[in-house]
Structures are given as structure tokens and as C-alpha cells.
Prior knowledge:
The chain is mostly helical. Helix content is 44%, strand content 8%. It has a 3-stranded parallel sheet, with helices on both faces. The protein has a two-stranded parallel ribbon with strand order 1-2. Strand 4 (94-98), helix 4 and strand 5 (112-114) form a beta-alpha-beta unit.
Amino acid sequence: MPERVSSGRLGALDASECPPTFNVPQTMVLACIAGGSQALDQAYEDREDSPEAGQADLASLAVSGADAVVGITASGRTPYVRGAIAYANKQAALTIGLACNANTPLEQEVEIMIAPLVGPEVITGSTRLKAGTAQKMGADMLSTGTMILRGKTFGNLMVAVQATNYKLQQRALSIVQQATGLDEQAARTLLELQEVKSRRPFW
Length: 203
């Protein structure tokens, strides 16, 4: 998911939540942000002006035709994102755009365009507000829909969750009870047999 800096933080958040929620490898859903990982907690706004940086970051991930690349930019014009999409297109990857404007340059460069139109921002130019909220929802829907199609859920239950702390262990217990109708002790025994505590999926 290559993104400009503000949008990038939202994409990185979504990517980071996929492994624990759906028990997928850390390398399955990756985020590229203009300015690199240090841009997650510091502003590097100038880095988003370089299409070459977007291309280089995607090249470092060895993107291929087996991948999907989602470009996230509120304006739909950010050079970093468009450079990354251009590289992805050359590699025959599926390209998806997520922006909050219609008829943008990005729309002409991707195979699938998602463009929620949120209207003027409450604070003019502050795209982390309405546009940011819409982009986070868009990224959530893309990743969640993908994981559903990959069989990582059972009904509306997240049966592949990594139960790595007490709260998640209790959630896993509840999910197994809901899915199977077992009582608490039987569900706990089943979870132990499936080695949930060692981060294996319990379904």
C-alpha cells in the first residue's frame, strides 16, 4: 500500500493489524510510506513529491504480477503514490486507487478506483479529517474482504485471530464456544489442543 504521509499512516495501521487479526505472514500485507518508517511518527511531507521514491520503494519489495498494490492519496495526485502505481503497472500487478476526489490522475492509472467523495474538510486542507476517515474505512474494507475470501473467518467470527494475550485468549475461547456450541471447559481443551498460545490459528 504506497501512500502519501498522512494517508500512509492509515495504510500502515491497517497493514499492521492483518497478521494478528487474521494470522497471515507479516510479509503478506505491507505498507510503503513516503519518507519510510520514520514518517510514521514524524512529518516528512516533502518526500511525497518524488515519483522516483515511490518507484524505488515498490521495487525494493519485488512486486510482481502476483501482487495487488493499493495507492492511497486523498487528492489522487500525489507523485509518490503515482510513481509507485506506475512501477506496479509495469510489473503487471493489480493496481487499486483510493482517493477522495473524482476524475483524478490516479483514476486514469489504476485498474480499480475507489473514490469516496466526502466534500469540503471541516478545516480546509486538513485531509486527515473527513478524507482520512473515509480512507481508513476503505482500507479496512479492502483488507477485511480479502481475508474473508481467503477463509480467515467463519460467519462473522475471526477464527484465525492470534491469541497472544489474556484478552485475546478469552476472545478465542468465546469464539470457539459460539462456533461449536461447546461449554467453556470443552472449548478451552480444544484451544489447548490446537496450540493457540503458540500463535497457530485455532480454526
